[in-house]
Write a structure and sequence with these properties.
Number of helices: 12
Shape: globular
Distance between the termini: 21 Å
Oligomer: single chain
Number of domains: 1
Number of strands: 0
Largest sheet: none
Radius of gyration: 21 Å
Strand content: under 5%
Length: about 280
Amino acid sequence: MRLDAATLSLERRTVGECIDLALVFYRTHFWRISLMTLLFAGPLTALVAYSATTSGGGWFLFLMTYFFGTPFLGALIVAATGHHVFGDPFSLKMALTHVARRLPTLVLLLPLSRVLVAILASLCVGMLWVPYVARYGFVSEVILLERLSGRAIARRLEDIQRGRFFEASGRVVSIVSFTLLTGISLFIAVDMLATLLFDFPIFFGKLSSAFSYSDWGTLFSYDPWVVGSFSLLWWFMYPIARLAWFFCYLDVRIRSEGWDIEIDYRIQAARLAHA
């Protein structure tokens, strides 16, 4: 990484600005991020759609593959984005290289963190997962960018959000809410466009006033287009949330540690050393 070749300004940002920056970054690198996403979304969506047609278990399979698969997609996004911020090209090959170097640690911690999220989500009306994600949500950043291991990871995760716990929880809720509402709106828009332009309804065009509860269940469980398109859409929505959370990581380090000033000092020290 080249500290003097930053591709975005290192400054304090609100959660809204982090989401806005995530959208701009996603648009700028859409094809590369889409390629990363398709590595997971392509085979898993095909498997989910096939499961829907054969056993009606597409939704359960989608939830499981999405829940445990997105952290590894997030690790690729963090590796590529974190190095691109400091001048390296946004490269899938480079991201795969960095992830492969720390793969044993990621394979151990990422699924474990999701299991804990699932347990906490089942308690207290599902809201205990929010403070957990707020405190320990930067696992990929600490492993891939700060290159820590062992107990140092847990200590670092607690130190990053020290004194900013409630603010971090609010950011988690804001990012998840924005992604959820945007994803639902986008699904409705795609369904309407498919119906109007191609006369190929995905979901709403297949409904009628004569539909019974069992018909709804059959459509949701066994229609591969409903399950498959929903799965694919949410895989492509995930990078927005993950990028926004990564930019929150930069913001937290700037606010808590004066990271922008530290980097400026390191840049000037490097220049003086070469002078």
